[in-house]
């Protein structure tokens, strides 16, 4: 494992694996917030939404062949670890399918990758922020992400 997780390498490997599989997908979560808001956003993992009809076993096999280690399977997600150490979470949710279809391909580190639209990302974050089962710290992060996405971007030259 390298010294620090590499989001760009993990994203490139995941995109290649999903493309080989023929899966429809889009970048979501903190990485998408940073891209859409223009403000770098600290996030512990890379989140990708995959069409809910894609076979999970196929994703696990494709990612394993690409060198990622399967670390867990949950009701709406599968978790992996990239060889660099970057955690990768693959999310399956029928409510995201139309959002995946509307995703716009962007050049991310030399890889053409679909990223959900700002409006759809806000919808995802609003849903997550109001989930009563969500950990409070994550719900607060979701609310801050919504503010960023709506244009409440910090000015590096403003004072306290």
Structure, described:
The structure is a single chain. With 160 residues, this protein is an alpha+beta fold. It has a domain at 7-116: Beta Polymerase, domain 2 (2-Layer Sandwich), CATH 3.30.460.40. The chain has helices spanning 7-21, 29-37, 56-65, 97-102, 118-129, 136-149, and strands at 25-28, 46-50, 69-73, 77-81, 87-92, 104-108, 111-115. The strands form two sheets. The chain has a five-stranded mixed sheet with strand order 1-2-5-4-3. Strands 6-7 form a two-stranded antiparallel ribbon. Strand 3 and strand 4 (77-81) form a beta hairpin. Helix 5 (118-129) runs antiparallel to helix 6. The model has no long low-confidence stretch (mean pLDDT 94).
List keywords for this structure.
single chain, 160 residues, alpha+beta, 6 helices
Secondary-structure topology with pairs:
Layout: H1 7-21, E1 25-28, H2 29-37, E2 46-50, H3 56-65, E3 69-73, E4 77-81, E5 87-92, H4 97-102, E6 104-108, E7 111-115, H5 118-129, H6 136-149
Parallel strand pairs: 2-5
Antiparallel strand pairs: 1-2, 3-4, 4-5, 6-7
Compute the number of helices.
6
Distance between the termini: 40 Å
Shape: globular
- Average pLDDT works out at 94
Note the quaternary state here: single chain
| CATH architecture designation of the domain at 7-116 | 2-Layer Sandwich
Q: Can you write the helix and strand succession as a string? A: HEHEHEEEHEEHH
Q: Spans of 5+ residues with little confidence (pLDDT < 50)?
A: none
Structural class: alpha+beta
Number of strands: 7
CATH fold field value of the domain at 7-116? Beta Polymerase, domain 2
Sheet with most strands: strand arrangement: 1-2-5-4-3
DSSP helix fraction: 40-55%
Question: Gyration radius, to the nearest Å?
Answer: 16 Å
Largest sheet: 5 strands, mixed
Give the amount of beta strand, in percent. 15-25%
What is the CATH C level class of the domain at 7-116, in words?
A: Alpha Beta
